[in-house]
């Protein structure tokens, strides 16, 4: 991890991925306990992570992936990275202990986030749970409504990521599942 990414992980609040530094970071919850909803999560503080929570991150940009993994680990999560959707599917299927949440970048070479979500959505619900593992879409794109209305994703985070918003979204989605 480069010095800029390392410095950000050690004390920064946001990562600016790609050239979209003018966008306001936000997180969205798309599906609530009582059906589809859209809720903006703003100005939340990153509190203690849920102990043992396992997060799988699929991000093709190595620097972004390492940064996201470092921040999630710093927040107390057990984070595993995949370079694309195919690797994420393989890691998901091979996991002895199921993942609690999957973050999927939309645009990855080979198997992208939407294709990986379709594949993972068809997996059986892990033992001891009453709902599928939440899948969260990550992207810098602004026109994502078609992906969000498929029913495959439980949430959405826009790049650049706001770490405290991502933390709050993870906790909210895991509490619902």
UniProtKB/TrEMBL annotation:
<dbReference type="Pfam" id="PF00072">
    <property type="entry name" value="Response_reg"/>
</dbReference>
<keyword id="KW-0597">Phosphoprotein</keyword>
<dbReference type="GO" id="GO:0000160">
    <property type="term" value="P:phosphorelay signal transduction system"/>
</dbReference>
<dbReference type="InterPro" id="IPR001789">
    <property type="entry name" value="Sig_transdc_resp-reg_receiver"/>
</dbReference>
<keyword id="KW-0902">Two-component regulatory system</keyword>
<feature type="domain" description="Response regulatory">
    <location>
        <begin position="54"/>
        <end position="174"/>
    </location>
</feature>
<protein>
    <recommendedName>
        <fullName>Response regulatory domain-containing protein</fullName>
    </recommendedName>
</protein>
<dbReference type="InterPro" id="IPR011006">
    <property type="entry name" value="CheY-like_superfamily"/>
</dbReference>
<feature type="modified residue" description="4-aspartylphosphate">
    <location>
        <position position="105"/>
    </location>
</feature>
């Amino acid at each position: 991890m480069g010095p800029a990414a390392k410095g950000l992980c050690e004390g920064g609040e946001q990562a600016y991925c790609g050239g979209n530094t003018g966008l306001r970071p936000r997180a969205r919850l798309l599906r609530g306990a009582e059906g589809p909803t859209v809720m903006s999560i703003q100005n939340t503080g990153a509190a203690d992570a849920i102990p043992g929570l396992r997060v799988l991150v699929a991000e093709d940009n190595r620097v972004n992936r390492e940064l996201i993994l470092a921040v999630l680990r710093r927040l107390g999560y057990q984070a595993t990275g995949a370079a694309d959707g195919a690797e994420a599917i393989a890691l998901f299927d091979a996991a002895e202990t199921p993942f609690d949440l999957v973050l999927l970048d939309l645009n990855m070479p080979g198997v992208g986030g939407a294709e990986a979500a379709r594949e993972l959505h068809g997996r059986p619900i892990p033992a001891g749970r009453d709902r599928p593992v939440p899948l969260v879409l990550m992207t810098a794109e602004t026109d994502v409504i078609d992906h969000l209305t498929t029913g495959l994703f439980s949430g959405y985070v826009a790049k650049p990521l706001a770490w405290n918003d991502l933390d709050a979204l993870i906790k909210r989605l895991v509490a619902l599942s």
